[in-house]
Amino acid sequence: MPSTSQPLATPRAQARAGFTLIELLAVILIIGILMTFLLPRIPEAIDAAKVTACKKNMGEIYNGLVIHQTKRNRAPNGSGVRFFGSLIYKGIWENTPSTAKKLTCPGVDIGALTIGELDPLEWFAEEELLDGSYSAYAGRDCSEYPLRKFPGSGNWALVADDNDGGNNHDTTTVVLYADGSVRSFDVFEEREKGNLGPEEELLIVGPASPLEELQKLSLD
């Protein structure tokens, strides 16, 4: 009768059941090399994600402005933070933590703003309290540059990163326009165009901005 028993593993086969020291060292070396290349890029990836979130906020704000136009037969007439803050204090949006967070740049620490000490439901609830310290976005200066119609031109800036006290993002400024488009301006590209000097690391927003369209925004 033939035997059904399995052949015993040889010592050599048993020895290959695990990793050798040389293989482990090789894996550690590869991981080390990958970390050397990838770790410096982590801050860049985080900032890129916040730029994407910021652009999404701008799109949501534009949708809110369209609803405002539909309900009130006009665009908001407040200036600065009150321009877009009206989406909440006028009841266009329901006042919730998620809607409130859409009205400030995700690239800026909330603790650096007045709202850092407040409940999100208080951020944009009262018009008379709002000023530039309540958001890291700048809004249209409607007292000087009222919107004659809405939706409007793709050259009319409505909301942008305010870059107050430093860039909202490392090198990017995000801007919402009256036609619903969202564009970004890069510091390095603006230097090449001659809009910024070689030593300037910040694209100013507001009356002193080197870009005419951003001069029509107010930080307050």
Topology:
Blueprint: H1 11-15, H2 21-38, H3 42-72, H4 81-89, H5 97-101, E1 137-140, E2 157-161, E3 172-177, E4 182-186, H6 187-193, E5 217-218
Antiparallel strand pairs: 1-2, 1-5, 2-3, 3-4
The helix content, as a percent range, equals 25-40%
Residues in β-strands, percent: 5-15%
Distance between the termini: 96 Å
**Oligomeric state of this protein:** single chain
The rough form would be described as: globular
**Spatial order of strands in the largest sheet:** 4-3-2-1-5
Low-confidence stretches: none
Gyration radius over CA: 27 Å
Q: Can you walk me through this structure?
A:
The chain is an alpha+beta fold and about 220 residues long. The protein has one domain (about 45-220). About 35% of the residues lie in helices and about 10% in strands. It contains 6 helices and 5 strands, in the order αααααββββαβ. The chain has a 5-stranded antiparallel beta sheet with strand order 4-3-2-1-5. The relative contact order is 0.13. The model has no long low-confidence stretch (mean pLDDT about 90).
